[in-house]
Amino acid sequence: MVEDGGEEEAEGESAEMPAAAAPLQRCNGFLPGKEAVGGGRAAPEGGGEQPAAPAAPAAPEAEAMLAAGGGRPEVRLETRLSRRRLAVLAVFSCYSLVNAFQWIQYSILSNVFAGFYGVTFPQIDWLSMVYMVAYVPLILPATWLLDARGLRLTALLGAGLNALGAWLKCGSLAPQRYPLTLAAQAVCAVAQVFILGLPSRIASVWFGPTEVSTACAVAVLGNQLGTAIGFLLPPVLVPNTPNDIDLMAHNIGIMFYGTAIVSTLLFFLTGVVFEEKPKYPPSHSQAVLQSKPPEDYSYKQSIINLFKNIPFILLLISYGIMTGAFYSVSTLLNQMIVTHYEGEEVNAGRIGLTLVVAGMVGSIICGLWLDYTKTYKQTTLIVYILSFIGLLVFTFTLDLGYLIVVFVTGGVLGFFMTGYLPLGFEFAVEITYPESEGTSSGLLNASAQIFGIVFTLVQGKLTTDYSPRAGNIFLCAWIFVGIILTALIKSDLRRHNVNSGIMNLDVKAVPVDSPVEPESTTLKIQSAL
User: Fold this and answer.
1) In contact, 159 and 267? CB cutoff 8 Å
2) Each residue of 45-99: pLDDT tens digit?
3) What's the order of all strands across the beta sheet hosting 74-76?
4) Which CATH fold would you assign to the domain 82-282?
5) Which pLDDT tens digit goes with each residue over 138-160?
6) DSSP class per residue in 309-370
7) How is the chain split into domains, by residue range?
8) First to last CA, the chain
9) CATH assignment of 301-491?
């Protein structure tokens, strides 16, 4: 393990931290400040005076605040990147991968499992939808646990329940044991509640401002890769052998036991690698949040603040529509393909793989683009529109009789639809800062699960009673609504403004030496005291 000791070489920017700094107090109800000492500059508590740098001219509102508060406080915060962050991200991505694999492994073999357990297609669909159903009532307790008990415990719960559910499935290898496999899948669904909300939290707590969006995209990518493997591997491991149930049970057992062993290994790795947070905060925004006294935080007030945030509410609905549509398409993909291309279960899995792998590429590209440009709303809106176009093309080319066309259109659809997922997480963190990343992303996922349940039920009914085209047109209509809602979101990048020294709303940034100080981590915070 890599320890974040004092001898560790800083990988990012760093600065002097005053010795035994006093706890910072909350200022303006938004960000912490520090009482000014002697004429407007905070003196270091470790000893001698610091030479004063020339101050930039203050804005009229700043002058008024200075008159009321007595000066400009200064907070010196050390930031440093930990080497452990890469291990944390890798282990999380891996156990998130296994959880997503367990979600889709039934749906991509819906006809196989329906024959094996002697149940209907809707009952097999519930093995996927149980993930969505479990998430909605449990998300608020899970986000409270993340905020109250921390990242490490939440990660261990997610990895542990994931392994437990995988082992329970190993006991369901008989045709009459559908209730047991449903219960095991429900345990994995509970594990998902402690997984889906972590990408933005891990990225914010462990990664610097120039890599946070990419880190979030990589964390989401793990889940997407699990879905991709879930599309590819089960049809290969479990071919459809309706005349030999024993062989089918043997093949299913190989898949279940392999998943259980990998899940258990990842649970132990989580215990070894995960820590609550690095020794030093990786960014100014995290340093500011970590300096707040714990008693200042109220989970209930955080929820209230989020639901009063109109841009977040619009994003909450639009994210739910897009991600719910992706869940529905993923769940019903096998039925859509087999309807037009009978006996092509393996190719249905490969098309699903193409959809998700293309989305993984889209996620990474979008993450890198956001880190470079910070154009959150513009990128989100463009990707939303292109997802709508991609679904339209997929819908009207599905029944042409050429599988190669379905591969291409599925890849285009996946590139934009799956690539949207980390965009929503990061956009939410930006417009809701300083609220908890776990709470905002948890609510986004809850919205996605609700829309996913409704979309899967309605699209499944339309696909069964009419055709896959009818079900896909239903989704297109909703995604068009999502485009309108996304266009209405006001882009207020609060976290980015803190990291770049531009604080709006109640808090203003006062440059001290220059408007931009690329090598300094001295954060100047002006407040009304």
Assistant:
1) yes
2) 443 433 433 434 444 433 433 333 344 444 456 777 778 888 999 999 999 999 9
3) 74-76, 522-526, 508-509
4) Growth Hormone; Chain: A; (1.20.1250)
5) 888 888 888 788 889 999 999 99
6) -HHHHHHHHHHHHHHHHHHHHHHHHHHHHHHHSTT-HHHHHHHHHHHHHHHHHHHHHHHHHH
7) 82-282, 301-491
8) 44
9) 1.20.1250.20
